[in-house]
Amino acid sequence: MLSFVPLGVGDAFSARWYSTSFLLEAEGGRLLVDCPHPLRKMLTESDAGVDVDQLDGVLLTHLHADHCSGLEPLAFFFHFVLGRRLPVWAHPTVLGRLWERLAPGMDRLLAPDGGVRRLGFEDFFEAHPLRLDGAVEAAGFRVEARMTRHHVPTTALRVQADGVRWGYSADTDFDPGLIDWLAPADLIVHETNLGVHTPYERLASLPADLRARMRLVHFTDFFAPTDSAIEPLTQGRRYAIQRRSP
C-alpha cells in the first residue's frame, strides 16, 4: 500500500505550520519529498512512526530554503551517526547547484590533530538524477518528473508504488499542462499560494472529478480550509492512497 504523511503543509512564512514536505511509504521503502528543518521534530510530531535512520533518501523538488533547509543536518546525521551517504534524487539542474548551497557549512571539518579536512558533495550524498523523458527507480518507487513554472528550476512528481500513483505539483504558477500531466494520478497534491504560485480560485474552477482527487498544501496562514472546494491536507496525518476506478 502506498501511503504518505504531510510533515508540513505551510509556506515559507508560516507561523502555524511546518514547511510543506512529505514522507512517502510503500512496501519497497520510505522517501522524503523535500527536506525542510526541523525534520526530526516534524517526524516525531506526525503519524510517520519512523526516525531519519529509516529513510531511504530524499526526492528534492527545488532549492528554495523552505524545501531544502534540512538537508545539511540530515546529511550530517547520515555521515556521523549512520556512517553512510544520503541518497538524493533531483533534476540535474537542482543537483548541479546543491553543493553550491551547502558547501559553506559542510566543506571543512576539523581533524583531531587540529588540521582541516576538506570534503565534497560525494562525501555526504549519493546523487541520482531524475529524468524528464522517462521514469527512474528510487528505493522501490517509480518516479517521473516534469518542470514547473517557478522562480528556480523545480520539478513536479509522479510517484508510483504498489499499483497506485501519487502526483505532486511542487511549487508552480497555475499551469494547465501540468494539471493534465498530473491527472492520471490516483491522488494529486497541489500547492496554492500567492505570487508565482497557484491561485486557489484557478484550482477551484477545475472539473469536479479532478477536484475530488486533489488535496491542497503550501497554503498561507490565512487560508480558510473549511471554505475550500478542495480538501486541504492535515499536517502530520497519514493518508492511504486508493486506486481510482477505471
Quickly name the level 1 CATH class.
Alpha Beta
Which homologous superfamily in CATH is the superfamily? Ribonuclease Z/Hydroxyacylglutathione hydrolase-like
Give the N-to-C terminal Cα separation: 18 Å
Question: What is the fold named in CATH at topology level?
Answer: Metallo-beta-lactamase, Chain A
DSSP strand content: 25-35%
Name the helicity range.
10-25%
What is the CATH architecture descriptor?
4-Layer Sandwich
Q: Main β-sheet: number of strands, strand sense, barrel status? A: 7 strands, mixed
Q: List the strand order in the largest sheet.
A: 8-5-4-3-2-1-16
Poorly predicted segments: none
Total helical elements: 8
Integer average pLDDT: 95
Q: Identify the overall geometry.
A: globular
As for the number of domains, it is 1
Q: Topology as H/E string?
A: EEEHEHHEHEEHEEEEEHEHHEEE
Count of DSSP strands: 16
Q: Key features?
A:
246 residues, alpha/beta, Metallo-beta-lactamase, Chain A, single chain, seven-stranded mixed β-sheet, 28% strand
Provide structural commentary:
- Strand 3, helix 1 and strand 4 form a beta-alpha-beta unit.
- The protein has a single domain, classed as Ribonuclease Z/Hydroxyacylglutathione hydrolase-like (Metallo-beta-lactamase, Chain A).
- It has 246 residues and is α/β, with parallel strands linked by helices.
- It starts with a strand and ends in a 6-residue tail after the last strand.
- The strands form three sheets. Strands 8-5-4-3-2-1-16 form a seven-stranded mixed sheet. A seven-stranded mixed sheet has the order 9-10-11-12-13-14-15. A two-stranded antiparallel ribbon has the order 6-7.
